[in-house]
Amino acid sequence: MRARDLVTPFPSVTLDTPVYEAARLLSAQRLPGLIVLDAHGLPLSILPGTQVLRLAVPDYCQEDPALARVVDEEHADRFLRSLAGRTVREALPRQARELPITDPDATVLELAALMARTHSPLVAVVDGARLVGAVTLQALMDWAVST
């Protein structure tokens, strides 16, 4: 099995996409992450849903989870509203990492190794200078457990 056999069209965003819009897309389509494209339409990064949460959850709650409990329920339920006016650029990890990008000929083991190494729930599949789509962790696992 190759990447070309598991790839599906996948939503993408740009660095300037409002991060709240990215959160809505993640939620509406039940996605583990989004492909972030550069100005040429090629993958620049992967935005996992956890990075959106990292941007939305106040630092003090991340540093000391007990402090999250002192926020009243009404405000706690609306924590994503803090994303208003912010962009995908702000949600991306600060440190450069290996990008989970491959070509259509990658094997299932190559895909799995890339996901594991990059801690990414999806791999962008690029053929030449064209984004084909992505292979998700779910698609990879579904195939792997059925064989």
UniProtKB/TrEMBL annotation:
Protein name: CBS domain-containing protein
Naturally occurring in which organism (per UniProt): Nonomuraea phyllanthi
PROSITE patterns according to UniProt: CBS
